[in-house]
Amino acid sequence: MSTEKELESGDIAQIETVNESQEDGETHKTIRRIVWKIDKRLIPILMALYIFSFLDRSNIGNAKIAGMTEDLNLRGNQYNIALTVFFFPYALFEVPSNVILKIMRPSRWIAIMVLAWGTVMTLQGIVKDYSGLIATRVFLGTAESGFFPAASYLLSIWYSRFEVQTKMSIFYSSACIASAFSGLLAFAIEKMSGVGGLGGWRWIFILEGIATVVVGTSLALCLPDSPETARFLTENERSILTQRLDREYGRSGDGHERHSFQWKYLRSCITDIKLYLAVIIYWGNSICLYGFNYTVPTIIKALGYSSANAQLLTVPLYMFGMITTITLSIWYDRAKTRWPFIVGPYLFSLLGFVGLLAIPHPSYPGLTYGLLFLIPGGGYPPLLTCLAWLSNNTPEDWKRAIALAIVIGMGNLGGTVGSNLFPEGHAPNYWMGYSICLGVTAAAIASTLVLKGVYERMNGERRVEGGDGEESEDQEFRYVL
Q: What is residue 112's three-state secondary structure?
């Protein structure tokens, strides 16, 4: 059995010309070894960073029921405003951030972002009033804005079209872990109330912020930047990987176009109706899940549980979301199709909102809690399918980086809506919140079906154009449905 070091140019040429589904056993084993090396180096780092990112943006929901509202003397809708202001800079700076990511070394730019948001989170633990809370939330949104689109883009440049969603699901599942762990962590840290003369909710921010800063300090040394510069791969492995990805996305040439910014990519993204359909699909997740994440501890507490038990009872909800996300994503990549796996989970989530609207609250606490499982269980998986679908169907590196940033940026504006859907005055029924989430989920399903039709039409046009048997490489590219 030959090793990677024994692979010569002839082996590389064989890999380049054979379709992945037709690879011989030795070639397939070689690629599997390379992918496994990438997995071990890239995925754990991105998962850890996303755990800290999600903890730092959403722990305000735990801090709220741990005494923050009383200590900062928040009144009326001030808490919801503090949630909302995070999303404006978060959405605004995502495209510029991905442009910088392509210009700088990704490891350095991401390290800068992590250090920045960790510092802001630590300072959020010592704010004295509402104005200080607003200021830190704005700076936190600015600092965190680029991470998710950067991570999504990094995964797209390392993996093939029908590997990327599985990898995204493992990465994104860390959000579910963070959401679950947030409740456990807040439960433990809240017991530090009085230490150093500070409330327990302040220690939630301070300790999680310090941990983020510690992780950020070592990031530039351990996060790989690109397949072309990966030192943990041999020269032949880098060649195999690069040529495999070029073949997968129908690319050729010296790579200059892939690595030089051109304004045509930005113009093409801004005028592309497919991106706006993807944004609506994204809103099915962001509007509903942000509202859910920020409010679910309060919803559970209103069912008659203590603050501590409400924190703990959020854990199973997010673990269920993690299980459905990973399981369905593996299935998606094997099926090599996307649209049914957006519609299906969203229908699951839609049933949850119908049920929550149909029953009186808090008369049936057990039933209410059971229906809450359908929201993360059906709402988390479609986000990854949407991003994988967009990545699969955007072969140009620069356009993909910008397209992902635009969709994620505009999609996360849904957080400004979601964070205001469940005001305290609407407890315990939350008719407005559940109704809007129901409508948004239905719109996401409709947009998925329209986008599927657009890609079918484009594939049909390419078959007609290539009907003379002399298709160009671009014509050989087929959109994933």
A: helix
Which residue type, as a one-letter code, is found at position 251?
R
- Closest-CA residue to 278 (of 448, 153, 396, 90): 448
Determine the Cα–Cα distance for residues 427 and 302; give it in Å rounded to an integer: 8
Tokens for 51? 């755990």
CA separation for the pair 351, 365 (Å, rounded):
18
Contact 84, 214 (CB under 8 A): no
Q: Cα(430)–Cα(361) distance, rounded to whole angstroms?
A: 9
Closest CA to 401 of 97, 98, 93, 90: 98
- Condensed to tens digits (0 to 9), the pLDDT of residues 227-271 reads 888 888 888 888 888 888 877 766 554 444 445 666 777 888 888
Structural contact between residues 180 and 319, judged by C-beta atoms closer than 8 angstroms: yes
Place of tokens 């709220």: 64
Contact between 441 and 346 under an 8 Å Cβ cutoff? The reply is yes
φ, ψ dihedrals at 175, nearest 5°: -65, -40
Specify the pTM: 0.75
Q: Which residue has the higher pLDDT, 312 or 120?
A: 120
Q: Sketch the domain layout of the chain as residue ranges.
A: 4-476
CATH class of 4-476: mainly alpha
